[in-house]
Design goal:
single chain; 259 residues; alpha/beta; 2-enoyl-CoA Hydratase, Chain A, domain 1; Lyase 2-enoyl-coa Hydratase, Chain  A, domain 2; 2 domains; 3-stranded mixed sheet; 15% strand
Length: 259
């Protein structure tokens, strides 16, 4: 996929990156790019060494949403509208259910579908140039329920209504205040802060983190009590190789060597 506009690469032995790359259009996503994103996520999930995935934009922006220049074709008929909507939903769900931790590294425009991608990630790190917006109200469209749910989970019902009803831009400082962003960094320090944080995750037990993410996904899907499945996931940890390495390293006062 060398010529693709969405690319997956391993940037270290354990950290991967998906780059959204259409900088002339502020990385607005074409129909082809949405499918490429799905393909990249599949490839990343099938990479055994991967422990953390960073999603970011090429250049000065994260992503300015869907490529509006294609709308007259993509949404020409109810059938074509359903087709592209299904592709976008599949891409969002693939991020939200990705088996390893995901970090959105954000600068500049993070609008529409771009904001949806960021919200589907586990964490969002941004710099002071970032601007967020979800603007279906300006286009006469409706935001999908799954995306609204992820917005509510990030900022709460009241702010979610504010953002969607007004279609306004939310600047970086406010985004941090309302929970849209987990961490706000200096413009020139964002890359290093994200890298250091990703490395800190990569140093922990990949098995523990992956199973913990399954627990979070169960909660986000509506589970509010213990089930046999979550009990089994918890108890299985005590039989894992990572647990054997982890507690032995603790007793020996050394750093654990997780695969």
């Amino acid at each position: 996929m060398k010529d693709a506009d969405v690319k997956f690469t391993m940037v270290t032995g354990r950290i991967g990156r998906i780059l959204l790359s259409q900088p002339a259009k502020r990385n607005a996503l074409s129909a082809v790019m949405w499918q490429q994103l799905i393909d990249c996520l599949t490839g990343a999930a099938d990479t055994p060494a991967l422990k953390v995935l960073i999603i970011t934009g090429d250049g000065e922006h994260f992503a300015a949403g869907a490529d509006i220049s294609e709308f007259s074709t993509l949404y020409a008929t109810p059938e074509s509208s359903k087709e592209i909507s299904a592709t976008i939903a599949k891409a969002m769900d693939a991020i939200a259910t990705f088996p390893k931790p995901t970090i959105a590294k954000i600068r500049g425009a993070c609008v529409g579908g771009g904001c949806g991608i960021a919200l589907a990630c586990d964490m969002r790190f941004a710099d002071g140039t970032s601007k967020f917006g979800i603007t279906p109200g300006k286009l006469g469209l409706v935001y999908p329920f799954s995306d609204i749910k992820r917005l509510i989970q990030a900022v709460g019902v009241s702010y979610a209504k504010d953002i969607l009803f007004s279609a306004r831009l939310v600047l970086a400082e406010e985004a941090k205040e309302i929970g849209l962003v987990n961490r706000l960094a200096d413009q020139y320090e964002l890359d290093q802060i994200v890298r250091d944080y990703a490395l800190s995750i990569a140093d922990t037990s990949g098995e523990s983190v992956s199973v913990t993410k399954q627990m979070f996904m169960a909660f986000e899907a509506g589970q509010r009590g213990e089930t046999k499945s979550t009990k089994d996931l918890f108890h299985a940890g005590f039989s894992s190789d990572d647990f054997q390495e982890g507690y032995k390293a603790f007793l020996e006062k050394r750093k654990p060597d997780f695969p």
